[in-house]
């Protein structure tokens, strides 16, 4: 993880203390923007059509939540887990199996308020078990093992007809009607995904500053030292996986409701990698990066075909655009868009630059 | 070997018994009760042979992967793309020239060259930053997949087999008896036997190169401790380039092999990337014998699984991985 947080302000423990002391000033500076953003997000349905609300913002919030769960593991725990999309899909599958779908031979048709908690619990158990497996090894191995687990789940979904209904998956998995409001309508779904995304964003922020989160960051920076002063490194890491799995599971259920269906393709290698791409493009240093990456990704994915067509390129080369953009980000700004932003800001004020490099160096010296 | 027997007597006996049982299952004709419980012998033998030949292919792919990983700590997630790229190139070459051997040569040289470019142009610039290297390989695999889709489209391709490998040959294994008492021998596609033999030769050559040559000694030393190796004056960057070229070239060759007895299509790259991952996780990262053992295990479990528990075939593979991770996280033959 040293790669990603190298020149992030506050990566070292000393620098983190400093940045927390400055926090009120930082908050005061950023406040108007946050308020504007909150107002904007609240009133998006007033001036956009249902496509924008449902397909752009709704999708971005959900992908952002899954990327957020990855960001939590990677940014605070130093564990790059590629299994988050799979956890989300497990939750989606479970809602389809326990709840209602068009596959009447498999679905149990329990009411949604039973099926959803059961789905979340199963997905969290799945995420915790994969976490327990993944923490058997560390660092670069984590990527390999989680990718192998994710791919195994995809092929399992393709093969297994008795539980997961094979290649087809489950159709007509609809969001419930709550107090007369159909959550599958664009505007209610927009607010549902917005509120859950906001909740999970603040939950991650809160946990990252809680004793648990601080211990996790300590483990990221130096597991051996944390173990020496009495922290149970493995238990902290597995708990982090469980927490991340919870966020991913909630997003996965919403994603299934949004699509109306779940199939192995949703958990395929492409989507699994896309979550990592989203998190890295946005920036793994801060929870907001996941959502920035998600909105960039969704806008690209939705409109790139038109854009490519308009500038005279072959529109089917979308993946190359994403791949090259991803490569450019990894090459030039390991902190993603957030890193670009903070570098731009610090280049305007010389003091900021000193702080950034100081933070990076302080970590190495320590 | 002897040390293993001394340290784990119970396990040695279990492994020995398993091997004897497998040998008996393969060599002797099956009694009637056995055929009643688990289908005909022919099915079983076919699954075993398919599993071993698939394992041979996996070994070709995974040995390069594990070598690159062991030496450079670079999880090359573009390895599957190199496999598919090599396969497509081999197909194109053999389609134009009609020469199967030329396909191997071109695939090896082209992929090795690509590997050299990647190592010098990309990975050397971010040495020691393992995560960043891995992210870059993800980006490369996305781009390569799209380039291949652009050039070769979404069709299935199969590399033409040369005439002398066409058809099936009889193996000295009795699968059953006809009603008049004559033994029925097993028929098996010649091309698969060829692949098996070729993989064993490649494996032995690699073992010899690693254990009997100077550069092999450098590579093994680098796997154990690359800082000390470079401190002794070895030009480690050259070793890195050589290993990356060899690993990438092997992936290309494996692509032609895979294209001959399976098919080439988009998505094959991730399948073989996954296979390489699982093989090296099971066998032990950075170990060539581990890659061989893991490849055969995974190949067998995939084929036997798809015959006897069709909808759970992947789970058997996955279970092997989980068991290995749970009891021996460094892999079966990995260094602890």
UniProtKB/TrEMBL annotation, chain A:
InterPro entries attached to this UniProt entry: ABC_transp_permease, LivM-like
Topology in membrane: Multi-pass membrane protein
Name of the molecule in the record: Branched-chain amino acid ABC transporter permease
Main subcellular localisation: membrane
Compartmental location: Cell membrane
Highest taxon in the source lineage: Bacteria
Gene Ontology CC: one annotated term: plasma membrane
Cross-referenced Pfam families: BPD_transp_2
GO function terms (MF aspect): branched-chain amino acid transmembrane transporter activity
Transmembrane segments: 30-48, 54-75, 82-103, 109-133, 140-157, 189-208, 229-255, 275-300, 321-341
Keyword Transmembrane helix: yes
Keyword RNA-binding among record annotations: no
The entry's keywords: Cell membrane, Membrane, Transmembrane, Transmembrane helix
TrEMBL record, chain B:
GO BP: amino acid transport
Membrane topology, as annotated: Multi-pass membrane protein
Keywords per UniProt: Amino-acid transport, Cell membrane, Membrane, Transmembrane, Transmembrane helix, Transport
Transmembrane segments: 9-27, 47-70, 77-94, 100-123, 135-153, 190-210, 238-261, 273-300, 307-327
Principal location class: membrane
Record-linked InterPro entries: ABC_transp_permease (IPR001851), BCAA_transport_permease (IPR052157)
Localization terms from the record: Cell membrane
Coiled coil (UniProt feature): none
GO molecular function per UniProt: transmembrane transporter activity
Superkingdom of source: Bacteria
Segment forming the signal sequence: none
Cellular-component GO terms for this entry: plasma membrane
Pfam families documented for this protein: BPD_transp_2
Family: Belongs to the binding-protein-dependent transport system permease family. LivHM subfamily.
PANTHER family named among the record's database cross-references: ABC TRANSPORTER ATP-BINDING PROTEIN (PTHR11795:SF442), BRANCHED-CHAIN AMINO ACID TRANSPORT SYSTEM PERMEASE PROTEIN LIVH (PTHR11795)
Record protein name field: Branched-chain amino acid ABC transporter permease
Organism of derivation: Microbaculum marinum
